[in-house]
Write a structure and sequence with these properties.
The chain has 4 helices and 6 strands, in the order βββαβαβαβα. The chain is an alpha/beta fold and 134 residues long.
Length: 134
């Protein structure tokens, strides 16, 4: 499935959903994209997600972080048999910038397993898949 600058690919061999943003996107496209990922995950019962952010300029603005924390992430609590695992894949430069500013929820934020999800930031796709498989 590909729309709003996002390609969503089920990977039953992992099992995971891989979502790759193909271009810079607007905030409304980001919201729509995350809801499409959730819809695909619901259809597959898949709680492991690889989110490829390498083509996006901004990983998490304060507005995006606020939306994720108050609107999107709460939807994940109790939705699947296991907490959703969000593996964010970013370029090394963006990852270092995100880790430096990881005070708000976003790709570089600390794991929050009591909030229905776990998340980690990666620059290596193989490492992200390894983490998802745990």
């Amino acid at each position: 499935m590909s729309a709003f600058g996002l390609e969503i690919t089920p990977r039953p061999d992992l099992p995971a959903i891989v979502a790759r943003w193909q271009r810079e996107i607007s905030v409304p496209e980001l919201h729509t994209g995350y809801l499409a990922i959730l819809k695909a995950a619901d259809a597959l019962g898949c709680w492991r997600w690889l989110l490829d952010l390498r083509r996006r300029q901004e990983l998490a603005t304060p507005a995006i972080a606020a939306w994720m924390d108050t609107e999107f992430l709460p939807r994940l609590t109790g939705r699947f048999a296991e907490p959703v695992r969000l593996a964010f894949l970013a370029s090394p430069l963006r990852a270092s910038q995100e880790k430096a500013a990881a005070s708000a929820p976003g790709p570089g934020a600390a794991p929050r397993p009591n909030h229905g999800h776990q998340q980690a930031l990666f620059t290596d796709e193989a490492a992200a898949y390894h983490w998802l498989a745990q």
